[in-house]
Amino acid sequence: MPRNVASTPHISSSSPRTNTSWGCLSLPVSWLLPPFSVLFAGLLMSLFLPTAPPTSPSTNRDLASFFTPEVQYWATDIRRWSAEHGLDPNLVATVMQIESCGNPRAVSPAGAIGLFQVMPYHFAAGENPYHPDTNARRGLAYLSTALQTHRHNTRLALAAYNGGIAGSQRSEIAWPAETRRYVYWGEQIYQDARAGKTYSARLNEWLSRGGNGLCAAAAAQLGILP
């Protein structure tokens, strides 16, 4: 979710557990670094190529098998939440993957909370920011708004989810580095899932560059054995 109070939505999540660390990670997962040369090349290409074509949501798709076990743990909920918001379950799973790897108690150094990493000031009074249903309702409502704003262009919607809708409407060269990294991870993981692939090189790259630590914390929280 966007970290800027002026552009961030309401969100919440709940779990009886009390662990609020990200385990091995000391930085938000969206800060995990792809090679600089790849980011730079992608940025240059974005200046000369048309943006990714819009995609129509399909709420009936099965989750791609390559999502990690911690995300697959929520498969039934992901399908339900996706149907409630008219979203593609694979897009919802992609966001969960790179935000928290399915850890309902995840808290980033910036203070973002839960499965979909929502800042505390996005919750209404009395809402539990750690309840999965509440967290999903707030986060996915914002994702849905971002998709509608960008006519279902998922690249721009992912940028909006990370950096705010206003920020995503700027030229890509003006996006913060964190947003460009977030889109680098999320866009290709989602496209791999949408294409029905059983393997995602981009997801494996994300895991190798720090995502494994996030997922280890999620597995411990969910009681998933290694």
Major β-sheet annotation: none
**N- and C-termini, Cα separation:** 29 Å
Name of the CATH architecture: Orthogonal Bundle
What is the number of E strands? Answer: 0
Oligomer: single chain
| Gyration radius over CA | 16 Å
Summed up, the helix count is 9
What does the secondary structure layout of this molecule look like, with pairings?
Elements lengths: L35 H13 L20 H4 L2 H11 L3 H11 L32 H18 L4 H10 L1 H4 L8 H18 L6 H22 L4
Helix pairs in contact: 3-5, 4-8, 5-6, 6-8
Summarize the structure.
With 226 residues, the protein is mainly α.
Task: Give a structural overview.
- By secondary structure, this protein is an all-alpha fold.
- The chain has one domain (51-222): Lysozyme.
- Helices cover 49% and strands 0% of the residues.
- The protein has helices at 36-48, 69-72, 75-85, 89-99, 132-149, 154-163, 165-168, 177-194, 201-222.
Entry keywords:
mainly alpha; 226 residues; Lysozyme
